[in-house]
Design brief:
Layout: E1 11-17, H1 21-32, E2 37-40, H2 49-52, H3 73-78, H4 88-101, E3 108-109, E4 114-120, E5 125-130, E6 135-143, E7 165-168, E8 183-187, H5 191-203, E9 206-211, E10 217-219, H6 227-235, H7 237-246, H8 265-278, H9 294-311, H10 315-321, E11 334-336, H11 339-342, E12 348-352, E13 358-361, E14 365-368, E15 372-374, E16 377-380, H12 389-392, E17 395-397, H13 404-407, E18 426-428, H14 441-461, E19 464-469, H15 471-486, H16 517-529, E20 535-539
The protein binds 3-acetylpyridine adenine dinucleotide (N01).
Protein name: NAD(P)/FAD-dependent oxidoreductase
InterPro entries: FAD-binding_Monooxygenases (IPR050775), FAD/NAD-bd_sf (IPR036188), Flavin_mOase-like (IPR020946)
Family: Belongs to the FAD-binding monooxygenase family.
């Protein structure tokens, strides 16, 4: 159903930026509708997050049976996940399989970074420029650039002097890294650090973990996926996928609908113990009000501190590992295997860099305000310029040459996390303002892709050439986003990447939508039914 001439080989109906979960499915959907599409991917392979995050221990903390595409019934029946939580190599194999299965590769340019995207008012289309010197023109520009794709290395003085090896978890070398016999320092104890640390500890001569803020880490309770378990999932996929789509977080973990105050002490303890045993992110759903009621939240936090004390032999180390002063879950809950146990090893030292901050990297290690550490390898598990980082690195210019950086100077503003006023025909997939990082990303990616694909099909049939979020709709959505977040405990803990606090100078705004996947989908579908209310649709 191409609406463009094929005369110019660099003219397309749509350009998609990124070939991760969102970008691959977006490409597939548009090809199926007959569009001319090009995908531009900066990495040397498809897979997005799972292409870049190859650090030892990297695995998903949403169950594989949920964290997978639902659009291809045969695929979801055929594919056999080997573990409850798939590790990075298996996820990358899966995404490569999808690319081959749907013959997507001929439409993807790898090793091609988009440097700018400019809207042409007269042509109602975008010109997308790459670091390889190409200029692609397309009516629709679809940003599938990921929420956690720009590695954030802190600006610590002296890194250029370090004579050892340093790495960031989010840009891990394909050939891998050996820690055998090495003195290793890991900076950062978020989701990446807590997965990596136990594995590095097994290999290194000595591991120093530099912790600034303790976070809660649940035991993943990972295990091999049995055929019987997989068969049950597969037979129940219609109900389970439907449930995920209308749930709070886009997956099938059970939610306790009872409030903490409505349960007896024995019931509360039984609930918390069963969530600990279930592992992973189950604790986030222990009580209906765990993220809105301070008492429910603190009860959960104290239960977890008790578990840390049970596992970690040295009471001082246990206390240092116990999060204090920030509500449970307001920094992303981590999920790992053997994390707390690792600190019982004689060859692992926990260093508190809150009380004695890192001052500089030296030629041979790292110096805090109170001590010096000799290191052969430094691993930065220091997170990402999240949600806006990949977009802010592209020079995006909308109507009248206005830049996205100007439009978002005080933080990202979107309508539904999909459209931006002043930037017609540009769509963000799982961008800021949508549930994205507060959900099973694959579920949210599918919902965005399908919603955008339906809109583009509608535009084609109705001969619409320009679609733009109105300023009013964007303002109302931005207010709604802040209102929803304001009703939760997240508003009390601003020191997280959810707020942009981990990147110096970044505007501090709570970026994802907390209203839930089901509610978000209901609203988006209702807007579509109302002829895409809040978007201005202009005929060609
Ligand atoms: O990054 P993070 P991440 N000196 O930002 C510390 C997803 N994910 O890569 O809290 C010392 O969470 C920082 O300390 P503080 C998931 O959504 C999922 O681990 O700022 N420390 C913190 O401890 C996750 O939330 C999976 O005080 C410094 C750490 O570095 C998101 O990705 C796996 C520092 C950064 O933690 C990001 O996770 C991996 C400094 N100068 C990731 N700068 C799974 O599915 C930063 N830190 C399991």
């Amino acid at each position: 159903m191409s609406d463009r001439t094929a005369d110019d080989p660099e003219t397309y109906d749509a350009v998609v930026v990124g070939a991760g979960f969102s970008g691959l499915y977006m490409l597939h959907r548009l090809l199926r509708s007959g569009y001319r599409v090009r995908v531009l991917e900066a990495g040397s392979g498809v897979g997005g997050t799972w292409h870049h995050n190859r650090y030892p221990g990297a695995r998903c903390d949403i169950e594989s049976m949920d964290y997978s595409y639902s659009f291809d019934e045969e695929l979801q029946q055929e594919w056999q996940w080997s573990e409850r939580y798939a590790a990075q190599p298996e996820l990358l194999r899966y995404l490569n399989h999808v690319a081959d299965r749907h013959d997507l590769r001929p439409h993807i340019d790898l090793d091609t970074r988009v440097v700018s995207a400019g809207f042409d008012d007269a042509a109602d289309g975008w010109t997308v420029r790459t670091d390889t010197g190409r200029a692609l023109r397309a009516r629709w520009c679809l940003m599938a650039t990921g929420c956690l794709s720009v590695a954030q290395v802190p600006a610590i003085a002296g890194l250029d002097r370090f004579t050892g090896q340093w790495l960031h978890t989010g840009a891990w070398p394909k050939e891998g890294v050996s820690f055998e016999g090495k003195r290793v320092g890991v900076i950062g104890t978020g989701s990446s650090g807590t997965q990596l640390i136990p594995i590095v500890a097994e290999q290194a001569e000595h591991l120093h973990v530099f912790q600034r803020t303790a976070n809660f880490t649940m035991p993943a309770q990972n295990r091999p996926m049995t055929e019987a378990e997989s068969a049950v999932w597969k037979s129940e996929y219609p109900q389970r996928r439907a449930h995920a789509r209308t749930s709070g977080f886009g997956h099938n973990q059970p939610q306790n609908d009872r409030r903490h105050a409505d349960m007896t002490p024995a019931e509360r303890l039984a609930e918390l113990e069963s969530r600990w045993a279930a592992g992973g992110l189950h604790m986030m759903r222990a009580f209906a009000d765990v993220m809105t009621d301070a008492e429910a939240n603190e009860a959960t936090a104290e239960f977890l501190r008790g578990k840390i004390r049970e596992v970690v032999h040295d009471p001082e180390v246990a206390e240092l590992l116990s999060p204090r002063g920030l509500p449970f879950g307001t920094k992303r809950l981590c999920s790992g295997t053997g994390y707390y146990e690792t600190f019982n090893r004689p060859d692992v030292t926990l260093v508190d860099v809150r009380s004695a901050p890192v001052q500089e990297i030296t030629a041979t290690g790292l110096r805090t305000t109170t001590a010096e550490y000799e290191l052969d390898v430094i691993v930065f598990a220091t997170g990402f310029d999240a949600m806006t980082g990949s977009l802010s690195r592209i020079d995006v210019r909308g109507e009248g040459g206005k830049t996205l950086a100007e439009a978002w100077a005080a933080g990202p503003r979107t309508y539904l996390g999909l459209g931006v006023s002043g930037f017609p025909n540009l769509f963000l997939l799982t961008g800021p303002g949508s549930p994205s990082v507060f959900s099973n990303m694959v579920n949210s990616a599918e919902q965005h892709v399908e919603w955008v694909a339906d809109l583009l099909d509608h535009a084609h049939h109705e001969r619409i050439g320009r679609i733009e979020a109105t300023a009013d709709a964007e303002a109302a959505w931005t207010t709604h986003l802040a209102d929803v977040a304001g009703r939760t405990l997240y508003s009390r803990a601003r020191n997280s990447w959810f707020h942009g606090a981990n990147v110096p100078g970044k505007p501090q705004v709570f970026m994802p939508y907390l209203g839930g996947v089901g509610e978000y989908r209901r609203r988006a579908d209702e807007i579509a039914r109302q002829d895409y209310a809040g978007f201005q649709l202009t005929s060609r």
